[in-house]
Design goal:
Elements lengths: L1 H8 L18 H42 L5 H42 L2 H49 L1
Helix pairs in contact: 2-3, 3-4
Length: 168
């Protein structure tokens, strides 16, 4: 008897402390906004898919046309430019396809999450939206870096040509 009394008076080592963490609630106005965003994201995703398809078809057709025209004149350079044209436009098509895919996936998951109150789908949708913004952020950083590099090369080129003019 005495032995059981001792064990109940001692504090348990596996006691968990619960902290009050504010819960995020999604009210009807937010659900309405999510649903409307999902509809627009689906529209933009589908438009992006159509544009991607048209770009791929156009890139293949234009590349083939440029290569075929090189047989009538222009030689190897015209044939090479057809391949380069196709490559550049395929790269643009991928740059349009990926964000379109993310928007479409966001749309599907957000609609399901909002309509059926499924936390998992809404969380997955927000993850897709995060990936979309991350993609465009990286693309923006790349383009800003390229513009800065071009600007620096232009200044170096201008300084070099000015020094060549002074030597004449």
């Amino acid at each position: 008897m005495e032995n059981t009394e001792e064990t109940t008076n001692q504090p348990q080592a596996e006691e968990t402390v619960q902290t009050a963490q504010p819960a995020l609630t999604v009210n009807e106005e937010m659900r309405s906004h999510f649903y409307e965003m999902a509809k627009w994201a689906k529209f933009l995703g589908i438009v992006g898919f159509v544009i991607t398809g048209l770009m791929v078809i156009g890139a293949l057709a234009a590349g083939a046309t440029m290569s075929a025209l090189s047989k009538f004149g222009g030689g190897q350079l015209a044939a090479l430019s057809g391949g380069a044209f196709t490559f550049v436009f395929m790269l643009y098509a991928v740059m349009i396809f990926y964000p379109s895919l993310l928007m479409y996936q966001y749309s599907s998951n957000a609609k399901t999450g909002v309509l059926y109150g499924e936390q998992f789908n809404l969380t997955h949708a927000i993850g897709k939206l995060k990936s979309l913004f991350k993609f465009w952020g990286i693309v923006t950083i790349i383009f800003i870096s390229l513009y800065a590099l071009i600007f620096i090369l232009a200044i170096v080129g201008a300084a070099s040509s000015m020094s060549n003019l002074n030597n004449l």
